[in-house]
């Protein structure tokens, strides 16, 4: 049996998951269940950083009857500390895919953001880039060198942070044997 647990919030019990011979067993907030592998309809892997944990990954698992489970790669430890659980999360997600493949699953495997959300994010980034370019040109024309330096530094930081999020979360489909490396720790 392979187990994985994380605390989704500071207050409350841990969310615990286990891969059994019968299926995916889960337990949290006073509820528990077992989903046979054949009942798992979809898995979406994504990269979801937050302010306190820049390397946070998420798996959304959907059941055939519409219920959903969310598995995160980080766990709350204190009011100011979110701990990464990269190795355990990766091992659990890889093992889940292997179990589904062994069962002959037809689950839909997708990665990244949904297409609509991705297009909206690209549009927002493009709009921001155009605005920043306009400010940069204006600062160059009037000779405001401190402003130019600030804008270049800010653009580099923005490209590093947001560019990484956009690149990792590009919508994609994958198969059981070729999980997207960018969406796993």
From TrEMBL:
<keyword id="KW-1133">Transmembrane helix</keyword>
<keyword id="KW-0472">Membrane</keyword>
<protein>
    <recommendedName>
        <fullName>Bll5862 protein</fullName>
    </recommendedName>
</protein>
<feature type="transmembrane region" description="Helical">
    <location>
        <begin position="147"/>
        <end position="167"/>
    </location>
</feature>
<feature type="transmembrane region" description="Helical">
    <location>
        <begin position="117"/>
        <end position="141"/>
    </location>
</feature>
<keyword id="KW-0812">Transmembrane</keyword>
């Amino acid at each position: 049996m392979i187990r994985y647990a994380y605390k989704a919030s500071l207050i409350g019990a841990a969310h615990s998951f286990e891969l059994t011979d019968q299926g995916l067993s889960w337990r949290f907030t006073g509820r528990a269940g077992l989903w046979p592998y054949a009942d798992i309809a979809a898995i979406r892997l994504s990269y979801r950083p937050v302010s306190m944990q820049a390397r946070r990954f998420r798996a959304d698992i959907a059941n055939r009857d519409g219920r959903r489970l969310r598995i995160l790669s980080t766990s709350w430890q204190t009011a100011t500390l979110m701990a990464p659980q990269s190795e355990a999360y990766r091992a659990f997600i890889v093992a889940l895919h292997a179990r589904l493949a062994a069962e002959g699953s037809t689950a839909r495997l997708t990665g990244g953001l949904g297409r609509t959300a991705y297009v909206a994010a690209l549009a927002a980034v493009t709009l921001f880039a155009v605005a920043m370019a306009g400010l940069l040109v204006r600062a160059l024309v009037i000779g405001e060198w401190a402003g130019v330096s600030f804008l270049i530094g800010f653009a580099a930081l923005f490209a590093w942070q947001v560019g990484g999020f956009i690149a990792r979360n590009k919508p994609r489909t994958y198969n059981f044997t070729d999980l997207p490396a960018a969406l796993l720790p």
